[in-house]
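$ ./design --mode recover --in tokens.txt
reading tokens...
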């Protein structure tokens, strides 16, 4: 029994670590190119919101993946343009992207699903399962 639980925990750990490993690889590539990218978390958050919204409007998770790539990439391009073209401070630009996206996702979630922090389907599921 303990070996089954430990195997499930190992597999769960690996599954949950994949996005962090990919972000770390991206951060390493940015460092190697000479850009400090402190906005990786904001790019991941914007991509996650883009995935949820793209899936919500289309009903197709692959469209959601496409939205995630586009939205996360737009913030990456914004960081690149600010740092390379306009010579802004790389740390300030990255932290600014993080703060901006943190607020933007909250505002857009309220605008689209009229709820705080949850998409509509998950909120409905939670309400149906966890009734008082």
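writing sequence...
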């Amino acid at each position: 029994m303990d070996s089954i639980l430990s195997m499930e925990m190992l597999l769960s750990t690996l599954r949950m670590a994949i996005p962090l490993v990919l972000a770390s690889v991206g951060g390493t590539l940015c460092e190697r190119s000479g850009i400090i990218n402190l906005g990786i978390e904001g790019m991941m958050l914007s991509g996650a919101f883009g995935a949820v919204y793209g899936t919500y409007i289309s009903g197709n998770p692959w469209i959601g993946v496409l939205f995630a790539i586009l939205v996360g990439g737009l913030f990456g391009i914004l960081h690149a343009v600010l740092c390379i073209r306009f010579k802004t401070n790389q740390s300030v630009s990255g932290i600014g992207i993080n703060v901006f996206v943190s607020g933007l996702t909250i505002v857009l979630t309220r605008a689209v699903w009229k709820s705080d922090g949850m998409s509509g389907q998950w909120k409905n599921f939670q309400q149906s399962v966890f009734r008082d």
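exit 0
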